[in-house]
Write a structure and sequence with these properties.
It is a single chain. The chain is mainly alpha-helical. It has one domain (about 1-20, about 30-350). It has helices at about 1-20, 35-55, 55-60, 65-80, 100-115, 125-145, 150-165, 170-190, 195-205, 210-225, 235-240, 250-285, 290-315, 330-350, 355, and strands at about 85, 90-95, 95-100. The chain has a 3-stranded antiparallel sheet with strand order 1-2-3, with helices on one face. Strand 1 and strand 2 form a beta hairpin. The longest helix has about 35 residues, at about 250-285. The radius of gyration is 20 Å and the shape is globular. The relative contact order is 0.16. It is a multi-pass membrane protein. It is found in: Membrane. One of its GO terms (molecular function) is lipid-linked peptidoglycan transporter activity. InterPro entries: FtsW/RodA (IPR001182). This is Rod shape-determining protein RodA.
Length: about 350
């Protein structure tokens, strides 16, 4: 896990620099501001991953209640004390940096669900209900920000962990119906910002004349420009011209595709595939249900984020503002992802301890 994580983080450093180098524009500050900050975020993330792996994932289990309540408290506080960015109040401003509680909330939710769903051999109705409520509370707070992309990630985590936990088929059917109803309710609510509605309209109607249509067109042009082998590092025309909005965050895959082409894109996706395969194997070798479910949650989180981030850049999925894990610029996302991977590495390092104590 650490090897693939560091390789992807290295790709992220290069691509963030490529996407943000040069003189100041309306879309970015001057010089290497983004690069310096991203290096700090990546460095902190690596330290967090190492410390988490050394301390052990079972400490996360003991601190689950504190982590969950802290997450809910921060999500509530950010609605009043947070700063508003592009219509969403999801971040705190801390000494020139920004912290997004919902990113760390992903890890807290994974641990909470692992405790709830893994506390017995059978997941009954009541345990499933408790798990659903534990996810619904932060989701409702995130909806108030609003941040549709993060809500979808929470949903993917919940779905993946419930499936691995072995919930009976009839319960899954009811759960799917409830999730569908909730999705429709969110889309019909007035909580979504105008730009979020435009993004969904573009996915449904390709002829829709919106700002989101322009974003997608420029992203597709950038990917097409890359061809088989790409234009070369730091040589992307769409990138240099700042034609792709948020190219250091939401649309960083377009920078990868334009500058390294189909070959480079496949290599990066291959690294993600190897990382996910490793996480899956660690889950299968876990000694207890808690470890299995934590790996299932991290696997589901990363798989959905990669699929959605790449999909929205290519027009296969609606634009939802989900970062590409370990690669996109964003301190909270990078550090939280490394934290989650530290839990997985801890499970791998201690895979024989539970068995040695006679649990199996």
């Amino acid at each position: 896990v650490p090897v693939f994580s560091l390789l992807l983080a290295g790709v992220g450093v290069i691509m963030v620099y490529s996407a943000t180098r040069g003189p100041a524009t309306e879309l970015r500050p001057a010089d290497d501001t983004f690069l310096k900050r991203h290096l700090v975020f990546a460095g902190i993330g690596v330290v967090v991953m190492a410390l988490t792996a050394l301390i052990g994932h079972r400490w996360a289990r003991r601190l689950m209640a504190l982590a969950y309540l802290s997450t809910v408290g921060l999500l509530f506080a950010v609605l009043s004390a947070g700063i508003e960015v592009k219509g969403s109040r999801a971040r705190f401003s801390l000494g020139g940096f920004q912290m997004q509680p919902s990113e760390f909330g992903k890890v807290a939710i994974i641990v909470a669900l692992a405790v709830i769903l893994g506390s017995g051999d059978r997941v009954g109705v009541w345990r499933l209900l408790v798990a659903g409520v534990s996810v619904a509370v932060p989701v409702l707070l995130i909806m108030a920000q609003p941040d549709l992309g993060t809500i979808l990630v929470y949903g993917a985590i919940f779905a993946g962990m419930v499936f691995v936990a072995g919930v009976p088929g009839r319960h899954l059917a009811v759960l799917c119906l409830l999730l569908l109803t909730g999705t429709v309710a969110v889309l019909q609510s007035e909580r979504l910002e105008a730009y979020q509605v435009e993004r969904l309209l573009v996915f449904i109607d390709e002829e829709a004349d919106t700002r989101a249509r322009y974003n997608l067109e420029q992203a597709e042009v950038a990917i097409g420009n890359g061809g088989i082998t790409g234009k070369g590092l730091f040589q992307g025309t769409q990138n240099v011209s700042d034609l792709v909005p948020e190219q250091q965050t939401d649309f960083i895959f377009t920078v990868i595709a334009e500058e390294t082409g189909f070959v480079g894109s496949v290599v990066v996706l291959g690294l993600f595939g190897l990382l996910l395969a490793r996480i899956w194997r660690i889950g299968r070798l876990a000694d207890d249900r808690f470890g299995l479910l934590v790996t299932a949650g991290v696997f589901s989180m990363l798989l959905f984020q990669v699929f959605q981030s790449v999909g929205m850049s290519t027009g296969m999925m609606p634009i939802t503002g989900i970062p590409l894990p370990l690669i996109s610029y964003g301190g909270s996302s990078v550090v939280a992802t490394f934290l989650a991977l530290g839990l997985v590495q801890s499970i791998h390092m201690r895979r024989h301890q539970a068995r040695d104590r006679g649990m199996f």
